[in-house]
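STRUCTURE REQUEST FORM
Protein name: Extracellular solute-binding protein family 1
Source organism: Nitratireductor basaltis
Requested output: structure tokens
Priority: standard
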Amino acid sequence: MKTVLRTSGLVVALLMSSSAMAEDLRFTVWTGNEAHLSMLNAIAEGFKETHPDVTVTFETIPAADYVQKLTFQLAGGNAPDLGWLGEEPAPAFVDAGMLEDIGTALRAKDGYDYADFATEAMGLWVNGDSVYGIPFSTSPFMLYYNKTMFDAAGAEDPLALASKGEWTWEKLREVAQKVSAANDKWGFEFKDGEGYDSRIMHALMPPIRAYGGFAWKDGRCGFAEPEAVEAVTLLHEMVFEDKTIVPPGEQGDFFAGDAAMTINQISRASRLTDAGFDWGIAPLPTGPAGESPVVGQAGIVVFAKGDKKELATEFLAHMTNAENVATMAQFFPPARKSILDDAAFTDSNPNIPAEQMANVKAAINEGTVLPAHERMPQILAALKPRSDALWRADADVTKALEAMCSAIEPNL
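Status: completed
Returned output:
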């Protein structure tokens, strides 16, 4: 009986020891897409080859609420270990000391090849020798179009127009009218239908840059400059005069077949697997300033308030090694030069033809990341009520943009 008790105690001790060794990493993301999560979980499963007792849990926070809810978690003592972070809030998180410096660990890791990441792509995440994140997605904005609608309208599609050098913002306005009238659908929808709310910059920057404008630089606001006024006036007229852009308060989901065009990144192509219509992607329209690709970037970061920072850094290194970056490239264009330059990149997404992926690669090489700033949360908070005033039928676009500048300049 004593032997049995001692054996039982040993079993209990071993179970307790095994339980103590098991660790869970919390990883925040803004995707709820099944294809994305399946891929991420497979990458996490591969981590068990070297860390068999580690489980990674991906927690989805909707994109519109992501920064606010993540900030609450970090401030409230419920910090995740690591997660995704977009280009807009990244400088503010660095400035507030919310991100762990992972530079020394990554440079020293055998086989990681930190130098494989393009210097330009790392610019947002590096300060001297410190590294505060690794971009997992350097994704240009592309023009998605519903080819079935274009064919029904007898209109040349954006890819065909781009191949002839005729794809401009004025041309987009023209074909939006034609395709909308022929199909009794919206001609264009802002990114994720959030162009008036959480995606304000995503809506404004593609035409503003194509017209030669800017959001801000050297502490000066550019929204009220003539180039930006001309670009935003075109959008305003499409919303309220042409009635081809989905207006505030209305729904017109491109991915459900309710709009003929939208701007988004290639990660959204997975939503079109069973779309029920033919579709394609094309470069963004050009403007007076020529081709001006706009790039959205997101990085993987380790949160400084997490209690497993060393382990979280190990998983970040695993997730962003060459093999896993190649896997993620089907949804998230890479910052690793070896993957982007490999011919396999253009064949990486089963939903997008290679010749269209070539346009994605060109936009990555030639594009500029969306504006970012250390005081981005304050800028966006100040921008929101002024941009609400812009999106009214009777708005004076010039005065509305001047008001936007007045509101954000103290933070620049």
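Reviewer notes: The chain has two domains: 2-139+296-369, 142-292+375-411. The mean pLDDT is 91.
Form closed.
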